[in-house]
Write a structure and sequence with these properties.
The chain is of the alpha/beta class. It is built from 20 helices and ten strands. Helix 2 packs across helix 6, helix 4 runs antiparallel to helix 5 and helix 13 crosses helix 14.
Length: 485
């Protein structure tokens, strides 16, 4: 596969393009960027403390109570937040380019440990009540820091200071997957400024061809993506190591779970051991998931009770029940009644078959995706419920009954098993979800093959934090009605 950014060999790699002065990585204002990120976190810490103090002052004025003693209540908060920022700096928060959700996970985890330390210290000092405002301030910090850091990176990306131009050496699916991954998180700052076929450059005798590529593209780094050709990969890495070229390497897509592995490195050995543990096998993590599912589903049911009332009132003017229980496959392949607000006419099967006879294209669309963009069975009010995804609210009852989870693969029917092939075993390893990666990735705008891929990725990489991330992404996806039919 060729690329418009790929240079002809005669232009990309010639001795005339190489000089000693080019062998230095293009300098970016990394110190300025790091200081700005530290400043963003310091501003977030200050704002968190100011919000809590301001709230206390307002409440004390409203209640005609004695104003809080800021010195006594908050003397330890700047120390805790300062130590937290220092620990984050040691972990590379202000220098490394970390994807948004991974960075947010580190930030919230570190803040959780800080809150735990605060509570423990307050418990032993018998001063837990007075330390509650400080704990709230530290709890606010990750939210405000995530926002401040995102704004800072967005500003730096706009002015080009955080931009890191890279040349992608690779072809095929690996190169395409890498480009898509980099484009999915613009705040990382990576910009692919050229792509070169690795087979072509290795035919040249020039030992400094990688530096020539960097200079020609005015890039800062090489990125290898070679579709698991280990010999070719080894040759490229040897060349980069020999000439001290800054580089990164991306293994072929789907070779291993992207998130659920840990590295073990050995002193004086060029061996990296990758250890994988299924998150679905961790009993503690599963217990946390169950607790979140049940408690959150109960709260959401209470909050959404007015919607149930409105749906019941509209149902008075329509023949048929309020709820529709459709047989779906759950964990272990067991069938369960998946609840929804009824959005179709009662004689839906007859209406659908008649529509298929009139419109063969409609039948072909149904056979391919098991969904229809313009379903003749859907009622006008049902169309509104589907567009807003409110028709799925009754599935909260399925969650409480432990037939479903808040997050997971979408529940499928028996006829859809054929689309999964051998991957159906992964689907049966977890409970289907009210929401999931499919819902936050375009829903019906994605192909069924992509839906299966998302389900497999979710099961392989599952963690409690992944569920939280999907839940946080669900609201904007629903409000934006992306792919809702």
């Amino acid at each position: 596969m060729s690329s418009s950014n790929e240079l002809p060999v005669s232009q990309a790699i010639t001795t005339d393009d190489i000089d000693v002065s080019s062998r230095s990585q293009p300098k970016l204002p990394t110190l300025t960027c790091s200081l700005l990120f530290v400043g963003a976190d310091l501003a977030a810490a200050t704002l968190a403390q100011a919000l809590v103090i301001g709230t206390q002052l307002v409440l004390s004025t409203y209640r005609a109570a004695t104003p809080p003693n800021v010195t006594e209540d908050f003397f330890i908060v700047p120390i805790v937040l300062g130590a937290l920022i220092f620990c984050l700096a040691l972990r590379g928060r202000y220098t490394r380019r970390t994807p948004f959700w991974a960075e947010a996970s580190q930030l919230f985890l570190a803040s959780g440990w800080a809150i735990g330390a605060q509570c423990l210290a307050a418990f032993f000092s018998h001063d837990l009540g007075n330390q509650i405002p400080g704990v709230i301030a530290v709890a606010l910090f990750p939210l405000l820091a995530t926002l401040a850091n995102s704004l800072a990176k967005g500003l730096l990306v706009q002015v080009g200071a955080w931009r890191l131009p890279i040349v992608l050496i690779g072809e095929g699916n690996a190169a395409l997957a890498v480009e898509a991954a980099l484009a999915s998180d613009p705040a990382l700052g990576y910009a692919v400024v050229g792509r070169v076929d690795p087979q072509r450059i290795l035919t040249l005798s020039n030992s400094a061809f990688l530096w020539a590529i960097l200079k020609r593209h005015q890039a800062a780094q090489i990125l290898f993506a070679t579709d698991n050709d280990t010999l070719l990969q080894r040759q490229l890495i040897d060349a980069a190591l020999r000439d001290k070229v800054p580089f990164a390497i991306a293994p072929g897509p789907h070779v291993m779970p992207a998130l659920a592995w840990q590295t073990t490195r050995f002193f004086s050995q060029d061996v990296v051991m990758l250890s994988f543990r299924h998150g679905t096998s961790c009993r503690l993590a599963q217990a946390v998931k169950t607790a979140i599912d049940v408690l959150a589903a109960m709260v959401l049911l209470i909050l959404s009770s007015p919607i149930f009332l409105v749906a019941a009132l509209f149902n008075l003017f329509s023949d048929g029940p309020l709820f529709f229980a459709h047989p779906r496959l759950g964990i272990g392949g067991r069938i369960f009644p998946c609840l929804k607000f009824r959005t179709m006419v009662v004689n839906g099967d007859r209406v659908l078959n008649e529509a298929f006879e009139r419109n063969p294209a409609l039948k072909a669309e149904w056979d391919a995706t098991q969904k229809l963009r313009d379903d003749p069975r859907v009622t006008p009010f049902g169309r509104f419920l589907r567009k807003t995804s409110l028709d799925e609210l009754p599935q909260l009852i399925n969650v409480i009954r432990r037939q479903m989870s808040l997050v997971g693969p979408r529940p499928i029917v028996q006829n859809e098993v054929r689309f999964y092939g051998d991957d159906i075993a992964r689907y049966f390893n977890t409970r289907p979800g009210v929401t999931g990666l499919w819902q936050v990735s375009g829903r019906s705008n994605t192909s069924y093959a992509r839906r299966v891929q998302l389900d497999v990725w979710y099961v392989n990489n599952w963690s409690v934090w992944l569920d939280i991330a999907v839940l946080l992404k669900t609201l904007p996806a629903v409000l934006g009605r992306r792919g809702a039919h």
